[in-house]
Amino acid sequence: MNRKISFGVGIPTGEEGLMYPIPFAGARDNIHIAQKAEAWDFDSVWGNDHILTQQYVRQEFGRAPMYFSPLVTLAAVAEATSRIKVATALLVAPFRHPVMAAKEIATLDHLSGGRVMIGVGIGAYIEEFRNMNGPRVIGYNRGEMLDESLEAMRLLWKGELCSFQGKYYEFSDVESFPSPVQSTLPIYIGGNSEMGRRRVVEFGNGWLPACMPVNQIESGLNEIWEYANQMGRDVSDIEVAPQFFVYLGKTQEEAEQKFTKTQMHKHLVSLKNATLKNQQQKFTEIALIGSIEHVRERVAKYVEAGVTTFSAMLFSTNTKEELLDMMQLFAEEIIPDYR
To answer: Could you give the domains of the chain?
Structure first.
């Protein structure tokens, strides 16, 4: 089955100090970037979810970054656009009680006219979760919390009177109405782990790993199909939607050299102890970095491997102006190949 290949832009709701320098973008800059993304034929915009300043960010910049609520920002984006889908990559489930999360997501789906896609995960930095909740959560399993949250939200979105009792969350006689506009609200499961791939089969409509080389996309898909066979689920319509960093240069050498000077490069180095701790490949092998021709070839290889959505692409620049310039270049040189 031939599917449309989709392209999404990551907007800087929670990325200052991590993937972009401080300062980088204000709240309304996210709306402007999203409007440009819609005008340039991107299919979606994705907001990231950070709440507290990470220790290494504070040490590097000596000041707090601007982190904005992704769901509130996407509501503003939806009001200022008409076609582009509004999504999260990733919404950190352990930050929120599922009753509140389900209500806010359903509300966003109504405000956007059914344009919502929700990417969920456990969060890259456990320090945020612990600092928000104190020592009582030491030993909590965030993966289990994510599973419970997904199960609870799926129940709540039916719009019927319901109760739930889990290890971490419970509620009774709750009627969360109205249900989302979409009969099936698309849920993208984030994470590069085996458990993430199992979660895709159990709860998800899409798989949203980060920075994976082509061969791992292929092997990960094989695992998903195996789990689907075991669980008796048809996953033929599952969206394969990895996140990528993007840097376009006149030549391969120029692109790689300039990428090392970006805040994005520093962030990838920091993730070597977290999300990317098992990744041995060079950054150029897990991102879209290089000349236009090289990136075009990389995109084609990922499509051949099964990728259907290039979600939350983060253009690796140090200013908003450079970000918009690179977005436009990608839109003009790469996207038309898939239209």
So the answer is: 6-233+250-338 (3.20.20.30)
